[in-house]
Amino acid sequence: MPNRRNFFRLGAVGLVNLFALALAVPGLKYLLDPLGKRSGSGDFRKLARLGQLKIGEPQAFAILAERRDAWVKYPTEPVGSVWLVRQPEGSPEPVLAFTAECPHLGCPVNLAPDRKTFLCPCHQAAFGFDGKKLNDVPPRGMDRLPVELSTEADPEVAVKFERFQPQTAEKKPLA
Ligand code: FES
Fold it and tell me: What is the dihedral of CA 122, 77, 46, 43, to 10 degrees?
């Protein structure tokens, strides 16, 4: 019965291959994007109401995300933070949003002690509240993020969180 034996052998090989494929697909997905939304272009996230933001006073907001790898879903954790700067009434863009990741080497940018500029504590990169760089430490200004406002009387401010490559003069999304 060689044909029958071959038939069972091929069937068994096919089943093993199917099983291996089922195991490999989530693993490959994890290898391609281990942190999920951390590396790719994320969705808009609601961070605040416009009325919560004071004009000209930057406020920081943590970006929380659920991390999952091939088989495990981890609890929600901070994956970055964003500075929101409300603009004066009548400005074409009511709110500017910047990722807090320094374009020099990625440290979190903070407020300077006098609270009049942004300052990165790692190597002293300085930025204005418009995101423009104020010294030659960083290769570019702070990275702006897209902002959406809802249509309510006190609109919700939503930001699309993205990450960018450090150490380049041009703003390039992380692959
Ligand atoms: S990482 Fe910000 S100044 Fe170097």
Answer: 90
